[in-house]
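User: TBC1 domain member 31, Rhizophlyctis rosea:
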Amino acid sequence: MNGGPMKELAFLYRGSTLYVWNLVEKRLVHEILVPAFEGEGASVGQVGFVGGSKIACVLSNQGTMIFVDVVEARFVGQLKGRRFKSFAISPDGRLLSAIMDDKKYTISLVRLDAVWERVGGQVAEEAMSDEEAAEEEEVREDVLEEERKRVEVSMPEGKVMTFYELVETKEQSPALNRRKLRQFLNHYGTYPDEWRTYIWRYLLHLPENRESYESLLAQGIHPSFKDFRKKYPLKSERVGKSMEKVLSTLAYWSPIFEGLDTLPSLVFPFVGVFRGDLFSGVEVVMSVLMNWCQKWWEYYPNPPFEVLDVVEDLLGYWDGEVLEHFVGCGVTSQVYAWLPLRTLFSEMFSRKDWLMVWDHLVSAPVGFLYSFLVAVLVENRVGLLGVRASSDFEYFFTHPPSTKSVASYLHRAYEIHRGTPASIKPEGVIATFTPLPKGQYPIFKGYPEFVVGYRKR
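Assistant: Predicted structure for TBC1 domain member 31:
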């Protein structure tokens, strides 16, 4: 593997020996024997660079983790006291997340920058090679324990608790909280796939109203969606059935969602995330509809003018030239804002990019949704200023160019969210996040009832 700015270096490993190559000169630089990995059956299991440095983290198949300077071929340090199963290092090299051999369902976080600071003056100086093995330098167990953070909770007897409450019962500051999750997200850019459902459930404070959910589910497939799988044929029959159930549950929850054309596109990616836990998936969608989709159907079947005005004000402040171009081409906020918003960007991005976007949206204030949309427009200003036909605009807002990364959109979105004057912030129109109440789902009535009643007739 290549290491950060040292792109001429690559690792090849076999047994307990690391082979370091110079890719530019195409020659072997070092053969580093790892003393800690010697012994019957021991070998290198995983290697990763610490950020863009010359330090490599090396894990054996028996759980030993050491750090090696690959340029000078010398031992740097070792994390002792636990046996590691696998690890990942943040791009900036400050955090190491690991799964322990004895706790396979716990993610441990180690602050590598703090470890280097506390033991940096005590690292081993001896070089390691075929002929010469260096003495290992140990990072003390108390240092490791101090820097490692875990989620370990217990349930008080006699009380049924939600996942959010269960995590919050941990004394002092729980490892799984918004601040620490934000730190993780800032380092890695996205949450791990295997933990995303737990993190979203926690951040959204899901009430886990099992009885209310089952009463909605028991009503069966809603008449509005009885032909769903014929209209939207999916490769997976399981996903098709899940979509029918979720859409029907929402339709029984509130009449506005009966036959809403854009609802399947909005719901589909969430069903994909929670395909193994439909109960949580329904509550996540409900929470999103109640919070991120505020005021969307107050003028139904017309677009949400109040929300679109927020987007127009933001765009006018951050890039008036683009807004003037839209006006000159006869393109309104119903095109450049409502088209991507109404499906919550599911038609704009690939699954991977969409997940990254929503990792940030559920971790940020609700109004960040509109800062992100404006960021997409501002980041694509060059391409947009070159478009004039209305059909091309519509295509653009459902198929954005791949020349820009989601990371660049997010970076600009945070700048916009922080720098927008209070007078035009989305929070002036959009309420702050409110979790679904525990016990029973709220009545969703953010729509003109006479219009929906007429549609049903």
